Hints:
Elements: H1 5-15, H2 30-36, E1 39-41, E2 48-50, H3 55-59, E3 68-70, E4 75-77, H4 79-88, H5 93-101, H6 119-138, H7 148-159, H8 173-182, E5 188-191, E6 203-206, E7 215-216, E8 223-225, H9 228-237, H10 242-256, H11 273-284
Parallel strand pairs: 1-4, 5-8
Antiparallel strand pairs: 1-2, 3-4, 5-6, 7-8
Helix pairs in contact: 4-5, 9-10
Amino acid sequence: MLKSKFEVYKMCAQENTIETRGMRWDQTLIPKANEMHYYIKVSEEKGGQLVLSGAPNRWKKNGTKDDIYISEIRLAGNKTNIRKVLEGNTYSSKDVDRLIASAYTSFNYALPEDQGGKQEQFQNEVNKYKEFKKTNVNKQKTSVDISLEKLQSIVEDLNNSENRKKIPSKNTRKYWILEKYGKLSEGKVIDVSLMKQDGSGIKTRSVPKETSKKYGNFFGVAVVSSDFKNYDYTLRTLQIPQSQINDCVTQYRHAAGIVSKPQVKKSKPETTPQEVKQEKVKQEKPKEEKPKKVTPPRESLKTIETPVAKPEARSRFKISKISYNSPGR
Length: 329
């Protein structure tokens, strides 16, 4: 049976698979992962971060029971995906086989070393992670010796309205971010995916599953979001060190596959020599002044002189009075 054009295109796309977001990995990510004690998970569906202490629970699930953790390069996932990523980063087949053989698995992590397992090495690394986590959480809690007089002075300064720090209004995002983050219990995060201007929409929840599109919970900052702008705003509101903010933002972009678009400068269209010459002629040629239209003034209404009737000319002949003498007078 002949296949449709769509099916042919689909087959070609599967054969020439482009690197997915979850399969992005290179050696530059290893130093930071070593410092922060996490593993970089590679997957066809979604990448992210994993910690070794959570590996035993992952190995109990059907979908991840065959995952491995390679401590040397801080890489985790199933063998097929790991082999594909390493070969794509110019690792030889011999090196790939060696790294996979050195990984923690669901079988060797609970087996003592004298029986060919990695129990002691696994537990040692888990303990280091727990110590790091404890130190990272409590690094800002320091004990300071303050005299009673100095303490009273500080209290007076705080009570002074001029020196008192402004507390955010309850109708703002800053207030509710600080309020909810300060009340978090262990294993919980705040979700700011639907956060609004008035602070509504912020939720307290458990850490999202790996298949969730809500990224975060990086480097000890218990914040997740599916909206990058809300995530970035929340980090800056919490007033954590700028270097930690940068690390969290970089990891969020990596996990979500956000790539900043390069700014492309718009180039002016090229002009031919003839067009340049015509432009110069236009600039040099003086503008002809058009004669202004002169509107004639409106003629005032002429007063029509009505002829005055002249008095009739007196008769040239004088009529003398004729007297009649009546007879008998």
